[in-house]
Amino acid sequence: MEKINVNGIQLAYERRGKGTPLVLLHGFPLDHHLWDEVLPLLEDKFDVILPDLRGFGGSRAVDSFYTMEDYAADVAGLLDHLDIQKAAIVGHSMGGYVALAFARLYPDRVSGLGLVSSQALADNEERKQGRYKSAAEVADHGIGSVVETMAPKFTSDQRLQTFARESMERQQPAAYIGALKAMAERVDSTPLLSSFHFPVVLIHGDADALIPIDRAREIKAALPHAHLAEIPGAGHIPMMESKEKTAKALKHLA
Q1: Closest Cα partner for 72 from 107, 105, 109, 30?
Q2: Is the Cβ–Cβ distance between 219 and 120 less than 8 Å?
Q3: Which of 42, 60, 156, 157 is deepest in the core (most CB within 10 A)?
Q4: What is the rounded distance in angstroms from the CA atom of residue 187 to the CA atom of residue 41?
Q5: pLDDT (tens digit, 9 = 90+) per residue, 119-142?
Q6: Percentages helix, strand, coil for the chain, rounded to the nearest 5?
């Protein structure tokens, strides 16, 4: 992986392929390896940029409070470093929240937007407090309880559950804490949707146990021009559970 200094942190990323610049943002609490299995199906159409969000994977953890907008600014700094003015921004789960923040902050730099197993809504108060409780649990006792709770919810596929667990276990506690607080404080992006005049792709499994497919259908209702790929039987990681259908949908952004 390459590493650069941006916004006071060291950010790690991988770059593969040729074509339309495409940024793939992983979800919580994973890293860029989430996209490994679908990547070979995209390299012929896209110049794929795969960052590890701050604190995750090979990127440095930050102890101070930060926001989805800070993650988005890191992505903008990476694109500046690569001399890329405009890209399709795709985010999985929490990465989708970062993608929406990027679209809010840098609309002229977005050639297209993809939300995979994500949503536009902010947390309600109960969910927000739950994230702060989880952050406190990680601070006091480590990441074990979050891993045990989340890993089975990613997918019913045992092989992929093992992947998710191993990916989660190699992340730093500081990354968990920072991300949980940032997710808790994110804004509702629903009012932003009407400003999207670029291609939008929505990819969601109908068996997602973490973010229900209704969240994608609500975005589609607000954005009739969006392409919605509903993937039967897939859970929260369709880029691994159904890589061909995921890649086919993402190619609408080429």
Answers
A1: 105
A2: yes
A3: 42
A4: 33
A5: 999 999 999 999 999 999 999 999
A6: 45, 20, 35
pLDDT tens sequence across 226-248: 999 999 999 999 999 999 999 99
> All domains of the chain, ordered by start, with CATH?
2-122+188-253 (3.40.50.1820)
Name the amino acid, one letter, at 148: E
Distance CA 112, CA 198 (A): 5
- Cα 160 → chain centroid: 17
Structure tokens given for 133: 């409780």
* Cα–Cα nearest to 186, from 26, 62, 59, 67: 67
pTM, to two decimals: 0.98
* Sign, CA torsion 239/242/244/246: negative
Residue with tokens 């937007």: 113
Nearest CA-CA partner of 117 in 202, 181, 12 = 202
Q: Can you tell me which residue has the tokens 């880029």?
A: 239
